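[Help] Beginner question about ligand-bound structures

Sorry if this is basic. My supervisor gave me a protein sequence and a SMILES string for adenosine-5'-triphosphate and asked me to "get the holo structure". I don't really know what that means in practice or what format the answer should be in. Inputs are pasted below exactly as I got them.
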Amino acid sequence: MTDIYEQIIDRLVAEGGVVMLVGAPDTGKSTLAKLIMTAGLEKGLAVSYVDADIAQTTVGPPTCIGLRRLSTVADLDDLASSDDLRFVGSIDPERLRLQQVIGTASLVEAARNDSALIVIDTTGSVSGVVGQTLKYHKVELCRPDSVVALQRGAEMEPIVGLLRRFFSVQVDTVPVHPGVVASSPGERASARAEQFANALSGEQQKWRVKPTVFAPTLPTGLDLARLDGMLVGVHDRGGRCLGLGVLEYDADALRVVTAVGEGMAGLRLGSLRLDQVTHQTSGVNLREVMFGLE
Ligand SMILES: Nc1ncnc2c1ncn2[C@@H]1O[C@H](COP(=O)(O)OP(=O)(O)OP(=O)(O)O)[C@@H](O)[C@H]1O
Ligand SMILES: [Mg+2]
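Answer (accepted):
No worries, everyone starts somewhere. Holo just means with the ligand present. The predicted complex, written as structure tokens, is below.
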């Protein structure tokens, strides 16, 4: 078992390029990502980690795809801080697939020129129409040199067959390591709440916002109270997400609470409300929020 992991890591590091890891939840994707990156860094490669898992996040906050550039093995000790972010706006891998695919691909492109090895960690959505479509388009746009599928039994065979049929990418399967420990939904939710709390901590400020700063734009005459509690991606003018914010509607004014100070140009609406006390989230349909069909 260990040999299979060692062999594949050795090959991936020798070949370099872009590696995408796929697998169901709790299959060891993030752990394998770190093992590959450790081996790459030990060899002296410039390594980039694109963490496209918007739910069980390693780099940056949940709801975002994060890029981290690494130059030493010690950099792996703290992967939470990001060098670049793309806001998706959901923690559900089955939703907002356009944002997930574009965000992942654009961070891979951002890393391509200055990295010898790029490792893409992905969500656990790998089956059915939604999971297969998501992975298909991530491979289409990220153009990995290698895909590694971590599988229990034969669960990844459909998606592996699909990727081999439609793309010339090298696809390998490895069995899930027996040491992998599954996490409960409660553990996942509390880890996420802590990550949201961290993302929104620091020197938070409240900025009054004009209704014209949003993407998508607000319909004329929208009751702004409907946006209370909505999570937003705080964006600069260069297409980058600088961090997260939460909207607050109070006394006839709409404000954004955020630790992002400089460079805020616009706010992207996601499909989540975030409770600022518990940091628990609830999914919303943005169309319903905007057009009052709730
Ligand atoms: N090769 C391994 N040897 C021992 N333990 C492992 C190994 N791979 C993973 N684990 C353990 O199993 C757990 C889940 O692994 P990991 O977080 O890498 O999986 P994942 O597929 O990224 O999960 P998620 O769906 O939450 O993103 C972790 O506690 C990790 O330490
Ligand atoms: Mg993971």
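A couple of things worth pointing out: The chain is about 30% helix and 25% strand. The first strand starts at residue 17 and ends at 23. Feel free to follow up in the thread.
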